[in-house]
Design a protein that fits this description.
The protein has 90 residues and is an alpha+beta fold. The chain has one domain: Dimeric alpha+beta barrel (Alpha-Beta Plaits), CATH 3.30.70.1060. The protein is built from three helices and four strands, in the order βαββαβα. It has a four-stranded antiparallel sheet with strand order 2-3-1-4. Strand 2 and strand 3 form a beta hairpin.
């Protein structure tokens, strides 16, 4: 299952986030797979696509970062999957 994660950096914490990432990696369980991410120009948010069997698997990952950021976790599907869900004949 795919998830769009919106990470909201706590004020002034971007340097600490990148230091932790450099020193310790993503800190995610093996059941979670990183797909891709984008950072806004103000270093306030990261938009990240992750893959996991269950949303609960993501909670183990976000727990390692909650001191530096807050998370929105949104289940998403690909555009091709959306078309099939709307009308398999398309």
């Amino acid at each position: 299952m795919l998830f769009m994660i919106i990470e909201h950096f706590r004020p002034g914490q971007a340097p600490a986030i990148y230091r932790r990432f450099r020193d310790r990696g993503r800190l995610m369980p093996e059941s979670v797979r990183y797909v891709s991410s984008w950072i806004d120009f103000d270093f306030q948010r990261c938009f990240q696509v992750m893959e996991a069997e269950r949303e609960q698997d993501l909670k183990a990952w976000t727990a390692n970062w909650q001191d530096l950021m807050e998370f929105e976790i949104i289940p998403v599907r690909t555009s091709a999957d959306a078309v099939q869900a709307i009308d398999p004949q398309l």
